[in-house]
Please model this.
Amino acid sequence: MNQFTSVNDVAQIDQLVDDALALKKSPYAHQDLGKNKTLGLVFLNPSLRTRLSTQKAALNLGMSVMVMNMDKEGWALETQDGVVMNGTTVEHIREAAAVMGQYCDILGLRSFPKLQNRDEDYNEDFFNKFIEFCKVPVVSLESATRHPLQSLADLVTIRETWTGAGKPKVVLAWAPHIKALPQAVPNSFAEWMCQAQAEGMLHFTIAQPEGYELSEDFTPGATITHNLDEALTGADYIYVKNWSSYQDYGKVLPFPEGWMLTNAHLEPTNDAKVMHCLPVRRDLELSSEILDGPNSLVIHEAGNRLWAAQAVLKNILEKLV
Ligand code: CP
Model:
């Protein structure tokens, strides 16, 4: 693996899941792999899980880690070419990324969308320029449109906990929120689940109110409905997540009552396990009774972020040495 920005960078997702589960059993089996190698983590937005799990994953592999909170501690970056930098930006991404590539063997980058201009966000201009100019392998810590480390951890969690016969029914269920959130997590989850479905690992359904349909680029083969109860019937896993509208880009649209998951929603399911990437707003996005109840997998899922990150770093390190 030369970079990790989407499911398209992975040759075999089932093999990567196997790698993550093997690392969970033997976290320190590859400590020599990262010796004298440095991971740089560059954040333009806040993070708890991604920051800590990726640092810990690198330490388990014997790497050194440096963290740069670019939004608070770095120079204001210019990303456009051909501009006279006589405004607020201090350093061009051409130099900033190139310099970070001089200090690090692998770089991780988190950069959220602005949710103002769909084309601008979905072009992934900042991410692509960073990759071009740093000249070392890049791991996405969440971009404008995707969060692949989260999605890999989600697939690991489903594989690890599924004990039923046949293929599990996995449902991505939209949830309410007061803020306009990116589509990165649901896009990425859908992309990974569609790939897993294509490889015969599971059945995948998406439920969202009208106007919240994701880009079709991320949902090939998914069953898509506006009827939450219909989607939840026979569900084995429910992945709860809010996102803002893709069509009416970045907007919070009106939606009907009943989209916040409660225990009553679990009745037509196959005693479904409930997942969420976190952070979650209790009793707005997901009910406390679910989060604190026996069906919640959210802490287990967050724990698996470590093994997902370690599997990705291990795969990249193996290509470096
Ligand atoms: N799920 C996730 O990426 O969490 P953080 O934003 O805290 O890293």
